[in-house]
Design goal:
Blueprint (H helix, E strand, L loop, with lengths): L1 H48 L13 H17 L4 H15 L5 H16 L8 H6 L10
Helix pairs in contact: 1-2, 2-3, 2-4, 3-4
C-alpha cells in the first residue's frame, strides 16, 4: 500500500510540474504576442501621426486625425514601458520636423508633439536620488 501511495504522489507532483510549465510557456507566448501587437499598433499610429494614411483608407490625413494619433501614441507608450523610448524619439523628431515650418498647421502638430513629450512617462523609474542628480531645469515624473 505504501508503494502505491508513493507512486501516486510522484505522479501527482509530475502532473503539477507539467501543468506549471505549460502555464509558464503559454503566459510567455501571450506576453510576446501582446508586445508584438502593441508594437504593430504603435507603428501604424506613428505613421498616421506623421500624416501617412493607415491601411490605405484615405488619401489625406487631417490635423484632427494627426493630433488624435499623437494622443494615442502617448497613451500606448505610457501603458507599455518598452514603447516609451521609441515614442520619445518620435515626439522629438516631430517637434523638430514641424517646428520650423511657418504654417499654423505644422506649428500645431509640433506643439502637440512637445506636449506629448512632456507627458510621456520616463522609460525607466526615476528615484528621488536620480531626480536630485539631474540638472535643475530637468523634471521627470517620480517612480
Amino acid at each position: 500500500m505504501t508503494e502505491l501511495l508513493a507512486v501516486l504522489s510522484t505522479l501527482g507532483i509530475g502532473a503539477v510540474l507539467g501543468a506549471f510549465l505549460t502555464f509558464m510557456v503559454a503566459t510567455r507566448q501571450l506576453r510576446l504576442k501582446r508586445r508584438m501587437d502593441a508594437t504593430e499598433s504603435f507603428l501604424d499610429i506613428c505613421a498616421h501621426a506623421h500624416g501617412r494614411p493607415r491601411n490605405d483608407r484615405s488619401q489625406h490625413v487631417g490635423i484632427a486625425e494627426q493630433l488624435a494619433a499623437l494622443k494615442l501614441m502617448l497613451g500606448l507608450a505610457n501603458d507599455f514601458r518598452f514603447l516609451r523610448a521609441p515614442a520619445r524619439e518620435a515626439f522629438e523628431a516631430m517637434s523638430r520636423h514641424y517646428g520650423p515650418v511657418a504654417d499654423s498647421y505644422s506649428q500645431e502638430i509640433a506643439a502637440a508633439a512637445e506636449r506629448a513629450l512632456r507627458s510621456l512617462k520616463p522609460a525607466r523609474r526615476v528615484t528621488p536620488e536620480v531626480q536630485k542628480a539631474l540638472p535643475e531645469n530637468t523634471s521627470l515624473p517620480a517612480a
